[in-house]
Amino acid sequence: MSDLKSWPEPVVRVQSLSESGLRAIPKRYVKPPSDRPAFTNKTENQQHVDIPVIDLKNLFSKDPTLHEETLGFISTACKEWGFFQAVNHGVSHELMERTREVWRQFFNMPLELKQEYANSPTTYEGYGSRLGVQKGASLDWSDYFFLHYLPVSLRNQSKWPSHPSSCRELLSEYGAEVVKLGGRLLKAMSTNLGLKEDYLQNAFGGEDIGACLRVNFYPKCPQPDLTLGLSSHSDPGGMTFLLPDHDVAGLQVRKNGNWLTVNPIPNAFIVNVGDQIQVLSNMIYKSVEHRVIVNSVKDRVSLAFFYNPKSDLLIEPAKELVSEDRPALYTPMTFDEYRLYIRTKGPSGKSQVESLGST
Ligand code: OGA
Ligand code: NI
């Protein structure tokens, strides 16, 4: 494994490339034909299919019928899609919008100011432009900002942007609300899997969960049909809460071999199951592959909040979900160990979780 101390090559900011006005993208960003977004390949069918939309209003309703109905929707979405859009999720819409806008302003600041936060592959915290440290690797058309929210011992506000001035405060508030939502969904998933209500939360470390934010910035691209904003991957962590751009689509989810473009619903979160929940559920729930396409007209900002297990706990299939007929499909591993893979190799479909198979 290459060492994770520094990037193998000088880092190029995609935003600077985009703003330089070049007509053709550098070769490093050109994907092999099989990975390119097949714009011409959209069938009638695909355009009308979308991930489920779930209203969480009744998740904790006193009325058992309404409560169970909502649990049922979540169950189907987790089993069949690994993805859903959540509305009435309890997080303030105004807070969501302000947080996203503050990050848009961050990326619109002059390059020198952002460079103060330039990251390294040791922790990934800060302003970055690549995932993975393999020299000569294919690159994605995006920049990002990555930070730790939990545990508090890893939360280092001096690594969060000091400008715009409201950024740190908004982030603290935003994170607290999303963490609350994460706890509610873990309960719902535990119940749906036939586990004790607090099973998954405990497996994640109880109060000591990990949480990180990755803010993605996808600049306009002169040749969007040749590249990707983010290559196909499944999220390595527990569960992801994506706040997409309010008016530009880009996220695609893999379903039956096709790539479906998600149409974001205003004020919704796009929620998806990560690899750790796939492992804990012994593959009853699957972390589904997704990727991001870019366009030539508008840049796009998204906030991916990762709700993760405490990083040094062993994660393995719940004993209750292992039987003679369905043996444990994965060997135990800590999340710290697990996430080194994507941090070294970059996004590579579902190859990691598939390599964990215990047989
Ligand atoms: C991610 C991710 C999707 C998007 O950051 O892991 O999948 O739409 N982002 O930005
Ligand atoms: Ni993702």
UniProtKB/TrEMBL annotation:
The keyword Ribonucleoprotein does not apply. Its cofactor is Fe(2+); L-ascorbate. Coiled coil: none annotated. It catalyses: jasmonate + 2-oxoglutarate + O2 = (1R,2R)-12-hydroxyjasmonate + succinate + CO2. GO terms for biological process: defense response; negative regulation of defense response to insect; regulation of defense response to fungus; regulation of jasmonic acid mediated signaling pathway. PROSITE patterns: FE2OG_OXY. Keywords: Dioxygenase, Iron, Jasmonic acid signaling pathway, Metal-binding, Oxidoreductase, Plant defense. It comes from the Eukaryota. One of its GO terms (molecular function) is metal ion binding. The keyword Iron applies. Residues 208-309 form the Fe2OG dioxygenase domain. Belongs to the iron/ascorbate-dependent oxidoreductase family. PANTHER family: OXOGLUTARATE/IRON-DEPENDENT DIOXYGENASE (PTHR47991). This is JASMONATE-INDUCED OXYGENASE2, Jasmonic Acid Oxidase 2. It comes from Hibiscus trionum. The lineage of its organism: Eukaryota, Viridiplantae, Streptophyta, Embryophyta, Tracheophyta.
